[in-house]
Amino acid sequence: MIRISSQQIFSGGISRLQDLNSSLNQTQEQISTGKRVNKPSDDPVAAARILKLDQELSRNETYQRNAGLAENRLQQEESTLASSVDIVQRVRELTVQAGNGSLSANDRKSISSEIKERLGQLAEITNTKDASGEYIFSGFQGTTAAFAKDASGSWVYQGDEGQRVLEIDDGVTVPISDHGKGIYASIPRATFGESDPGNAPDARIDGVQVVDNGAFSTVSPDDIIITVDTVAGVRTVSAQNSRTGDPLTVTPATYTSGESFEIAGVQATITDADDGNEFTIRAGEKQSVFATIENLIDGLDNIDKGSPAGQAAYDDLIASSLQNLDNAQESIVQKQTELGGRLNAVESTKSFLEDSSVYSEEIRSELQDVDYAEAISNLSFQSFVLQAAQQSFAQVSRLSLFDRL
User: Fold this and answer.
1) What protein family does this chain belong to (predicted)?
2) What CA–CA distances, in Å, run from 1 to 8, 397, 402, 404?
3) What is the pLDDT of residue 102?
């Protein structure tokens, strides 16, 4: 015979009521929160997966913010570069206009005045700031203006060559800035000629231009040293590579003042040279777009076209300015193309992150969200069972041998 004490009856009944009440409370909590798993003990396996998914969603949210910041920064830079191209193109149009031989000195000064305005606009654009107040073209020196005037009044680059990057996904970084030195300052300069200071006073080299890029590439970026001398009673033009000293072919080799000749794909003219005079064709120089425009303004204001030398200098100014402006435009457009590729990469990554977040949220919802129809049904059943258990316990708790006497 198994003896069951009154204490066992009460303990078992209370424990059963507590279990039923706990289940009922858990179901009520699920309905009120909308979540099937509110604490790890509800479903340890699901809780671990939900935690991992929450971390994944948090990571995606951070990367999405970074991608948005990168997109905004690159779009701002792209817009700034587009404005720069417009300004350089307008200066080029004015330069072509300045090359019209029928213009008067006043006409040239009027053109110069507009170019000065355009130069100021370009400086303002290159000193654009981002939303945080930092200059976008100063590299890591965000608090320093990218371009400023030096003691001589010329615009010079003030920043460094740093490039900021931002991580937009695991192992995926994108540059979000470009220093102004690479875009606006270190631009290949049009090939030009210089007369040695010891030459005859009127000796000059004019009309320097590249006519054969293939032949020119065999020498560039080295300079070309040219010498005029008399050999066996014949005045000749000889040339050599400035770095290697290798001789270069000159066509024609006979010197005639004012007549053009060609060396390594470069055409030029030397005038009024004496024996032993030397000239240099510069091939690898770099020059900022600001210096190009400043030189153009100075020439428009100060070159006197009244003499053949003045006219030749003016013609060279126009030709070299056009080439340098084209090089500046090419530098800016090349950076625009690069930015387009970066923006495409950012957009693709943003799309991937959004899809990944949607997928993770769907899985988390399946694991975590409560089925209201099932939960409400369970709540009704659990309420019924708890009520029945309470009534049963009430009846059992009144049983006693004294009730039978």
Assistant:
1) Belongs to the bacterial flagellin family.
2) 16, 21, 21, 21
3) 85
